[in-house]
């Protein structure tokens, strides 16, 4: 066999192998594409089913949430150391600042703050995943008053509340050196020097 024939033979052999490789590659690629398409279809079906199940779970959670009995026919336990006042749509901390919610009640010692420090601490407070806590206005704080008992507050919703003064966010319009408070020993609301230290219960607007 001459050199030209050998070269030609090798070229034909290489071409044949190349064609066979390309044919197999094409078949393999088509198979991979088909598998990817099937996986994508399965994923889309799974994603759709997951969305439907998530919607259903949220509906069930909402139903259970709104069907649970209210505390004192008014406060809804949010399960995170806070309650929702269904009359005002305000979310309250169950414990005074300094106390801790242990899942059953408020433990620890409630701290006292001057009015200015109370405003600052409220802005820096993060609780139950929220950072928009604030001191309640005097009108908001007065909505917690329950007369005819001591302390004058719903003790199921706000356990271990001291019969003491609690600051509001409302300054005295006629005297800038004083601010309004509620005395939960008597249910009396008054105003006093802002430098005096009182207890604090924070609130936020429920979205």
Summary of the model, kept short:
The protein is of the alpha+beta class. The chain has 2 domains: about 1-65; about 75-205, Mannose-Binding Protein A, Chain A, CATH 3.10.100. The protein contains 3 helices and 9 strands.
Our count of domains comes out at 2
Q: Summarize the biggest pleated sheet.
A: 4 strands, antiparallel
CATH architecture of the largest domain: Roll
Can you give the helix content as a percent range? 25-40%
Structure description:
The protein has 2 domains: 1-67; 75-205, Roll (Mannose-Binding Protein A, Chain A). A hairpin with a 2-residue loop joins strand 6 (165-172) and strand 7 (175-183). The strands form 3 sheets. It has a 4-stranded antiparallel sheet with strand order 1-2-3-9, with no helix packed on it. It has a 3-stranded antiparallel sheet with strand order 6-7-8. A two-stranded antiparallel ribbon has the order 4-5. With 207 residues, it is an alpha+beta fold. The mean pLDDT is 87. The radius of gyration is 35 Å and the shape is elongated. The chain has 3 helices and 9 strands; from the N terminus they run αβββββααββββ. Helices cover 39% and strands 20% of the residues.
Helix-strand blueprint:
Layout: H1 3-67, E1 75-77, E2 82-85, E3 90-93, E4 100-101, E5 106-107, H2 115-124, H3 138-142, E6 165-172, E7 175-183, E8 188-193, E9 203-205
Antiparallel strand pairs: 1-2, 2-3, 3-9, 4-5, 6-7, 7-8
